């Protein structure tokens, strides 16, 4: 991303010396009537961006040369624009990035296509819609856009042939700027009208939340949501905040916004006319009645876009949005044509298969013959021919750029322009040959520009050229023309280069020289993920949920209520009401009111089936708990023995990061998630300590665990140590080998795979290399654990998919690893691992935030039909993706594959299963990975970590036969890229479903959010019962006390053994006449209040309370008085606890402080300072008269005053008292 504007302008000036290149600009500058309609230019891929920039300049030149005449004449729209049409969305992104090197950043925009089909009952993502609408707005109102006029729009063909709702360019975004006066209510109304969803806490794009005078909005076009503070009706300030912890971003270098620009989130907004149409259409479209019902009531529904044509006035072609005189340029017309054809075919198929409703059991969505459905067809994709004639009728030329040269003589009717440039030859990383070749060119006075994506590789290439005595200069941007006989190295995201022999000019990129591009996407500098403090996890309790109170046992949550504070006054506090088993038979259940400052005692119950409610004050709970404690002690003892050995041993302390490490990390093509960053830092810190690391990284499928391994391995090798990566399957070994090799390319590291795929000779060489130290990283299956396999100097073992290794493998590992660092990774940790990590014996890191740009996998559960299967496969082929079809019977798998070939004849289908020979299986997977065929019909062999980012549809046949974690792992195989992924879990339609199977499929369908691995692990625990979670002897105890508390008990027992038992914070009871609570208008919504109370209750030191207070101010604004009192009470609790008190409460006219065994001297002081006080040794308490403003006739102290007084009592009487152990 060239942040400093176009970085390759100098190069274009040189190109203009080429006659045919100069013709492009000249041709573009002629008015539409004179300009040729079909202009075909053939040029290599690397020249496309430069050509488009030339056309844009030509249009601008033509506009100025026509002078005043055109000003008067062209009143029908703004300046003409170049529209580049690519075959796929990915190509559009890359081209837009490359254009940034030739044109100013604000003048190029990408117009993305929906990731859904026009007739699908799924809405496109709000950020896609937001980006589309902002482009349309800039086209319709060039003057309104802040970023300068648009000159080039890049769009995939899918976006160009799809008609859009008329008038989208007129939709006004909601805009606010600091210092502006605007009625607060109106802003809220406008956001709701622009289809933003109002929620209590903003977590995804297209949502907003209101709290007092604060407004949180997540515009679909931004990376972070924005928090706007109003003072009355004036916008006081704006700041970015992070979704993960809802706190403002404070990282250095973060510039907070001064204006908010929120485009609508849907392309069809609910207006009165839309509502009335929906109401009248209900009868005509019975299948869509439920959707229309909601729309008529003014509610936006998922998938309402599919009904757009019948709800709005008209649908218009996208090209009509462009000013007359514009040029549309089709890039690679051959590809675009096939693509457009497939789109139209698949779309029709979808209309017929009515697939979108299969999941919710609806009837066919539309009766295709009715009048209304004829209108629906107006939203279907147009053919490319229609689009072209629309364009020409509208005054937009239809040009194309192809990579194939055409003979100018043979095609007299089309203007053909051949640019005599060629693709550079690739060197695939062969450095010596490359240096030799480039060196000779430079000596012949060639002008060579080398562009890389990031500063790291640029630096390294420059050093390489210097080492080979080739003159080269590192330049920030190329404003002047390149010098002959000198290589200029700069950064620009141009993708591929080109060579023009006639002019002796060449542009070479990282991909041409090193044989690799910095993968998929370029790193955007703005998207710095925020460091999270503590993640917000609202404690969601619904009436009827089971909770565990540490002192009283299992109860049922009833509600959160407010009650008046004792001691007069109008103070209020909030309490959680829990219901327990009745103490007398037949009586209603006992109720416990838990003050919100003791929320840390309450956790949700996770365990087997419905638990039995405990009796309050009875001995049942105590005995259940002590039994569990005893069992836990034994487990803890055994666990500690295991791990004390590790703590006692001395490992290798790795050195700090090297510059190379930084370079490797900068080359990571995606944006790290906050969790990934913290985890990476934790892993490095562990490696730098002398105690051997034993860390478990649990994160959902595809959350970037591999990248953590890559960085850790690189760090270990930097210190001269070897790394062993242990994986469960040969396929995974192959994949990791590819990933590691790709990430380490350009660094002098030797990575070798070791699995059944390597021949005996190769395996022997690898083993030899590992022994002598020639191999730095070895990636393999259990063979690494065999006795005869020796390392020269092993420093780090990485275990992937840890849950797949059995006990004996672990034992072998232990022998290998008493003093070696170990990093284990797993998506669904096995219960024992889970337990060890939750009790803190192994360090764990959890990756819980999905990488940027990931969308949940759309999951359909339904009966199997041929129509559905073929439609699903076709839809994936249409976006050039691949499909996994899982069929778990080897005996019938060939038959299934044959059936698919028959259903979708154009698909290339292959079969893979475990009974094939190794080499054959390997070959098939590699072919699939290299996109040589489209559909892989396979058994569950793919469940273990096969990572193919291009496969985004998964169809599971007979899904009722799988376990939960299996279904989750399978679903994790798709959705790895940035495309929307689909998972279809189908069961045979003729067989009834078993109850458990139904439960499982329901669970998978509901937990489709990213990161559902842990929830599913817990859910599995519920469906199966907790029996086999931690072995027989423990299951009963888990059922008895609930999972959370059980884990906490184990943690305590372990800490006890370690001799670091933390002081258990005793239950504190403070009942003073203080109005301390969070007002409803300050923190709206029960779950957010519960979360805030819980954080305060868990804060045990003044620093922790400061942090919570800062968070409240940041998220909800200045604290009102009751909330300030709440914080003051929390601080008072800290003081009282330090003084050894557990109970400070109002009793009649006295205030009781307990426990209190005071020495004689203290009692004297008490009587002197607080006359009328009484010491009650029998009650272990001191009673002090309630303070008043005056001895006689004064009023009682309240709120802050009484807290100040109570603090005084503690300081005077209790603080330096020797603490009695009572």
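^ Assign residues to that structure.
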């Amino acid at each position: 991303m060239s942040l400093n504007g176009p970085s390759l302008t100098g190069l274009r000036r040189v190109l203009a010396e080429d006659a045919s290149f100069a013709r492009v600009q000249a041709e573009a500058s002629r008015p539409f009537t004179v300009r040729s309609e079909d202009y075909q230019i053939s040029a290599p891929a690397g020249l496309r961006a430069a050509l488009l920039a030339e056309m844009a300049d030509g249009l601008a030149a033509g506009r100025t040369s026509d002078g005043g005449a055109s000003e008067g004449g062209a009143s029908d729209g703004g300046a003409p624009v170049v529209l580049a049409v690519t075959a796929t969305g990915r190509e559009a992104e890359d081209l837009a990035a490359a254009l940034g090197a030739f044109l100013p950043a604000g003048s190029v925009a990408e117009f993305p296509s929906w990731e859904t089909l026009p007739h699908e009952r799924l809405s496109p993502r709000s950020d896609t819609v937001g980006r589309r609408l902002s482009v349309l707005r800039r086209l319709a109102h060039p003057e309104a856009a802040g970023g300068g006029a648009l000159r080039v729009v890049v769009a995939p063909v899918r976006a160009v042939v799809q008609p859009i709702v008329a008038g989208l360019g007129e939709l006004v975004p909601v805009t606010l700027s600091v210092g502006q006066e605007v009625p607060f209510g109106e802003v809220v109304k406008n956001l709701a009208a622009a289809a933003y969803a109002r929620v209590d806490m903003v977590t995804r794009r297209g949502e907003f939340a209101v709290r007092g005078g604060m407004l949180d909005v997540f515009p679909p076009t931004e990376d972070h949501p924005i928090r706007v503070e109003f003072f009355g009706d004036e916008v006081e300030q704006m700041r970015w905040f992070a979704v993960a912890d809802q706190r403002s971003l404070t990282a250095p270098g973060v510039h907070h916004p001064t204006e908010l620009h929120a485009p609508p989130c849907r392309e069809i907004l609910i207006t009165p006319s839309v509502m009335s149409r929906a109401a009248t259409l209900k009868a005509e479209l019975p299948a869509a009645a439920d959707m229309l019902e909601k729309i008529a009531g003014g509610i936006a529904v998922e998938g309402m876009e599919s009904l757009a044509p019948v709800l709005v006035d008209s649908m218009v072609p996208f090209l009509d949005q462009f000013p007359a005189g514009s040029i549309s340029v089709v890039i690679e017309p051959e590809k675009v044509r096939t693509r457009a054809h497939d789109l139209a075919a698949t779309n029709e198929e979808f209309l017929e298969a009515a697939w979108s409703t299969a999941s919710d059991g609806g009837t066919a969505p539309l009766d295709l013959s009715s009048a209304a459905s004829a209108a629906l067809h107006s939203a279907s994709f147009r053919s490319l021919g229609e689009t072209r004639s629309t364009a020409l009728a509208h005054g937009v030329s239809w040009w194309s750029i192809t990579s194939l040269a055409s003979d100018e003589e043979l095609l007299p009717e089309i203007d053909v322009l051949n640019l005599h440039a060629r693709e550079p030859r690739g060197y695939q990383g062969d450095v010596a040959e490359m240096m030799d070749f480039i060196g000779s060119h430079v000596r012949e006075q060639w002008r060579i520009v080398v562009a890389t994506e990031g500063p790291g590789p640029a630096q390294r290439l420059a050093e390489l050229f210097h080492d080979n005595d080739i003159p080269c200069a590192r330049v920030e941007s190329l404003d002047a023309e390149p010098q002959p006989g000198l290589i200029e190295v700069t950064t620009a995201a141009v993708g591929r280069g080109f060579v023009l022999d006639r002019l002796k000019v060449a542009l070479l990129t990282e991909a041409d020289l090193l044989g690799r591009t910095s993968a998929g996407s370029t790193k955007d500098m703005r998207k710095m993920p925020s460091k999270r403090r503590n993640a917000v996890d609202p404690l969601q309790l619904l009436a009827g949920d089971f909770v565990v109170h540490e002192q009283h046992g299992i109860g049922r949550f009833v509600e959160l209520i407010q009650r008046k504070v004792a001691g007069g006054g109008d103070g209020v506090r909030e309490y959680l009401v829990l219901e327990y088993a009745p103490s007398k038979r037949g009586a209603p259940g006992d109720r416990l009111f838990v003050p919100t400052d003791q929320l840390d005692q309450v956790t949700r119950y996770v365990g087997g089936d419905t638990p039995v409610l405990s009796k309050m004050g009875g001995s049942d709970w105590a005995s259940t708990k002590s039994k569990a404690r005893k069992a836990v002690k034994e487990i803890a003892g055994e666990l500690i023995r295991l791990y004390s050995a590790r703590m006692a041993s001395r490992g290798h302390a790795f050195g700090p990061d090297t510059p190379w490490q930084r370079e490797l990390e900068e080359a990571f093509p995606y944006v790290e998630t906050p969790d990934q960053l913290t985890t990476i830092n934790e892993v490095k810190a562990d490696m730098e300590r002398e105690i051997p690391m034993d860390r478990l990284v649990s994160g959902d499928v595809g959350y970037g665990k591999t990248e953590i391994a890559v960085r850790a391995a690189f760090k270990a090798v930097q210190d001269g140590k070897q790394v062993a990566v242990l994986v469960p399957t040969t396929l995974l070994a192959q994949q990791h080998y590819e990933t590691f090799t790709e990430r380490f390319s350009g660094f002098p590291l030797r990575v070798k795979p070791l699995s059944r795929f390597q021949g005996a000779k190769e395996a022997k060489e690898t083993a030899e290399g590992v022994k002598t130290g020639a191999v730095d990283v070895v990636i393999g299956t259990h063979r690494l654990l065999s006795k005869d396999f020796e390392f020269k100097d092993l420093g780090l073992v990485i275990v992937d998919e840890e849950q797949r290794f059995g006990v004996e493998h672990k034992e072998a590992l232990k022998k290998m690893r008493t003093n070696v660092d170990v990093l284990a990774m797993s998506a669904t940790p096995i219960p024992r691992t889970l337990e060890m990590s939750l009790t803190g014996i192994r360090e764990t890191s959890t990756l819980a935030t999905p990488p940027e740009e990931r969308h949940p996998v759309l999951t359909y559960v339904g009966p199997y039909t041929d129509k559905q299967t073929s439609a699903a496969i076709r839809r994936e082929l249409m976006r050039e993706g691949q499909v996994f079809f899982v069929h778990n019977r080897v005996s019938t798998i060939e038959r299934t594959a044959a059936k698919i070939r028959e259903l979708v004849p154009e698909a290339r289908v292959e079969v893979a299963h475990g009974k094939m020979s190794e080499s054959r299986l390997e070959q098939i997977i590699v072919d699939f990975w290299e996109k040589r065929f489209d559909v892989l019909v396979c058994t569950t062999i793919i469940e273990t970590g096969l990572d193919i980012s291009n496969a985004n549809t998964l169809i599971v046949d007979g899904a009722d036969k799988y376990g939960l974690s299996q279904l989750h792992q399978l679903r994790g195989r798709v959705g790895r890229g940035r495309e929307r992924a689909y998972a279809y879990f189908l069961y045979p339609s003729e067989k009834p479903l078993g109850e458990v199977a139904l439960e499982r499929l329901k669970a998978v369908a509901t937990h489709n959010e990213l990161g559902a691995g842990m929830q599913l692990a817990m859910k599995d625990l519920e469906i199966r019962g907790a029996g086999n979670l931690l072995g027989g002897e423990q299951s009963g105890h888990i059922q008895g006390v609930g999972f959370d508390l059980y884990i906490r008990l184990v943690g305590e027992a372990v800490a006890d053994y370690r001799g670091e038992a933390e002081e258990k914070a005793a239950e504190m009871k403070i009942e003073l006449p203080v109005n301390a609570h969070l007002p409803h208008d300050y923190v709206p919504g029960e779950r957010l209040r519960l979360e805030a109370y819980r954080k305060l209750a868990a804060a045990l030191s003044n620093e922790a309370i400061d942090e919570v207070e800062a968070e409240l101010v940041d998220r909800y604004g200045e604290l009102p008085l009751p909330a300030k009192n709440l914080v003051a009470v929390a601080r008072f609790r800290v003081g009282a606890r330090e003084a050894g008190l557990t109970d400070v409460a109002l009793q009649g006219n006295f205030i009781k402080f307990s426990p209190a065994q005071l020495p004689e001297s203290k009692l004297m002081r008490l009587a002197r300072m607080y006359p009328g006080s009484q010491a009650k040794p029998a009650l272990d308490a001191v009673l002090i008269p309630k303070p008043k403003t005056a001895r006689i006739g004064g009023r009682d102290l309240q709120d802050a005053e009484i807290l100040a007084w109570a603090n005084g009592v503690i300081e005077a009487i209790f603080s330096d008292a020797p603490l009695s152990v009572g």
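The first strand starts at residue 39 and ends at 42.
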